[in-house]
UniProtKB/TrEMBL annotation, chains A, B:
Signal peptide: none annotated. GO terms for molecular function: DNA-binding transcription factor activity; transcription cis-regulatory region binding. Residues 4-58 form the HTH lacI-type domain. It holds the Pfam family LacI. Keywords: DNA-binding, Transcription, Transcription regulation. It comes from Hymenobacter mucosus. It comes from the Bacteria. CDD domains: HTH_LacI, PBP1_LacI_sugar_binding-like. This is Transcriptional regulator, LacI family.
Amino acid sequence: MKPISLKQLAQALNLSSATVSRALNDSHEVSAETKGRVLALARELNYEPHPFASSLRRQKSKTIGVILPEVANNFFSLAIDGIEEIARLNNYHVLVYLTHDDHSREVDIVQHLAGGRADGILLSVASETNQFTHLDLLAERGIPTVFFDRVRAGSAAATVTTDDHRGGYKATQHLLQAGCRHIAYLLVSNNLSIGQKRMQGYQHAMQEAGLEYSPHLVVQGQRDKAENVALIRQLLEEHPEVDGIFASVESLALSAYEACHEVGRRIPEDVKVVGFSNMAAAALLEPGLTTITQPAYEMGREAAKILFKAITKNKPVLPAQSLELESELVVRRSTEAARLKP
Amino acid sequence: MKPISLKQLAQALNLSSATVSRALNDSHEVSAETKGRVLALARELNYEPHPFASSLRRQKSKTIGVILPEVANNFFSLAIDGIEEIARLNNYHVLVYLTHDDHSREVDIVQHLAGGRADGILLSVASETNQFTHLDLLAERGIPTVFFDRVRAGSAAATVTTDDHRGGYKATQHLLQAGCRHIAYLLVSNNLSIGQKRMQGYQHAMQEAGLEYSPHLVVQGQRDKAENVALIRQLLEEHPEVDGIFASVESLALSAYEACHEVGRRIPEDVKVVGFSNMAAAALLEPGLTTITQPAYEMGREAAKILFKAITKNKPVLPAQSLELESELVVRRSTEAARLKP
DNA sequence: CTGTTAGCGCGTTCAG
DNA sequence: CTGAACGCGCTAACAG
């Protein structure tokens, strides 16, 4: 059975569809009585205005698009949670797309969304992305866009990130304090500001400790997980002196654990690992496993708030609205307290 | 700058909009030459057909709705991943909604989606849900719906689940073999088949071992996490003999870890814990922590496949299409192999 | 092969 | 306060 239409509702009430439409939209220019009759029958018949007809007329999709590299990862899952919450408060719908770090896919999605399916976009760019012309289209069309976490380096748009430089610094410092002298860095992508900034923090801490930064100890992450494990494994074999690893994203941290396991290097006795990560199970990590945790849920919420401010007020998002939240170094919880804020 | 419309494209080409529409939809009844001209200009101008206008006319939203209790949880994240992949292959879009186990929210979402925003629905019901009248609307409207994981007990629709009875049995058996004699059960909800079936598996294993099933050792999970921790804590304090815990969902497993920690009971020395869970970090669990892992990604894929079969062939989903996949008992990976398939 | 017409279901004129 | 007419952008039916 097809859903009932405005017209049918109007006929059943002996009213014109215009009046019914007005009543349902709570217009001032309709009598309280008719309003009551309309609403009563609408409720009874489970009437829902057809969303696409309405969108077409109003030129509002009531939908935002969320584009993520992946979701099988606690950071982005928590972010979605925050985004969905804010969207719901604004009576908006959330379309989710995954790029799997594939640039061409990102371009496709953006182009499609720019065609009217979404009123705004939240984007965490694919690590493969190094061209950004597809984003110009969004600017031209005036579609508000907020970047979060994985941001175009040097972008002129609003962004929500964490204190990436500081996070990299804190993580490295933690390893140094634990006695590591040869710390490898697992880089996500040089196109991304998170890649650059976290690495700068790492270099900063290394220099401060009077240690030399060695490009041989940097592994550039790929899209394929097995490949990453192999690369890290190779690093560990060629550089047995490595006693610490800093992973700039969760997936690389997991690859590092795996690689260590494969070559029989114990964590944390032989190698200490710190990674950016939002594992729900962070509290359960083995002794010595430590994470830099981002406030993913809040980041999702804040990014969405900025976006909706632009959508509802019909103003562009300004770079000045950008936010930088604080990351936290989480050491395995044992009998004593867990969170160290240096 | 507003996106260009079909009409404008037609004018620029001195063609009628009908012809242009046909050309873009690769109709047989249009000359190869015109087709070429149209496609060339369309590409140049970045033309995208307005999705809602098209949907309105074709009565197809090209969108599916995915309704989940939560997403900050590896199981549902992985499921979304699988769902999105199949949707993309079908050129469909994915709307994500979270109920946070709130029944009224589930009803709202379903009613709205039934109004034409989605061609089909994938649903994992809220644990609070015990009335299912809102689902009748979907049946009336002929909107294909596939349930996964959290299924309406005794539903007549297609479902994708894991071998919940067997999973509960395996988990409990594992605890028994490890020497546990007083095993508590953390129940998610009696409205859900996963709650019932997993508990049956638990009871089955207990009986087989000649142990008595005690309702005092069953904790009924609530929506609030802190409350769950408190309840489990109370259990542990009132029943110091408890030496094993079986958690029927991930969130309860995490609450159990926390509660044990709070009352100073060590895992696994004092209490062994097994939970249904899809933690990416499962490989990193502490010794003695064991999980029952569901093939979440595959479940998402399979559920979506069933749904799209119905959508594209315009046939209803049949209960006979239901699938039951196999869960896996994953013991902490150490130097030896990890996966035990009994 | 192409153009004309009509209508998907709404919301918004403009009259009365 | 209410109704008739129009159009959002697209596709399907009917002509030619």
